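Database export, one record per block. Field names are fixed; values are copied verbatim from the stored entry.
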Amino acid sequence: MIAVLRTVNRVLLALTGLALLGLGLAALAAAFDLYGRVGVTPPDGYAWRSPDEVLLTAADRTQWRAEDWWWPVVFAVLGLLVLLALWWLVAQLRSRRLGTVRVDTGDGAGARVRGAALEDAMAAEAEDQHGVGRARVTLTGRRGSPRARVGLLLEPEARPARVVRELRARALEHARTSAGLAALPAQVRLRASRHRAERLD
């Protein structure tokens, strides 16, 4: 879900940026009458030909109102856009970083620990592993059932399979037991550190 949301965010930002950039360039070209100055003739149907023209004329805005399908399509598209916006908002709220994690103390009352403190402890323990140069941990989800996103920067001598096994047995398991969690799902991303090739004489 987090990976999908990240991809959706990037695609939406890219499309929005391209649309705004294109609209801005078209408006500037019409405002400064660049087409007339450079002797370029815009294609037929293009609205912004000169500084005096508008994007949508009165005829363009009202030409479909008499059609039976026009208003149902308008309301359907607007409703779909509202649903997509609500889904995106809910997904953003669900995937945000946890401020606190609920800890089961065994007495029924429970306690809370700062999410950043637990993240730092897990990252420090992960960095103690052989072959791990740097670790970054982010907790998401709910306070009583958090999820961990772990990013590891591996040294050249590291063995990825061994690193993941040790991470599961040490940092993740210690965090799970210390917080009294039934499970601590984790998504681990490995990245190799860049290093210069060794020269053999």
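Remark 1: The chain has a mean pLDDT of 82.
Remark 2: The chain has six helices and five strands.
End of record.
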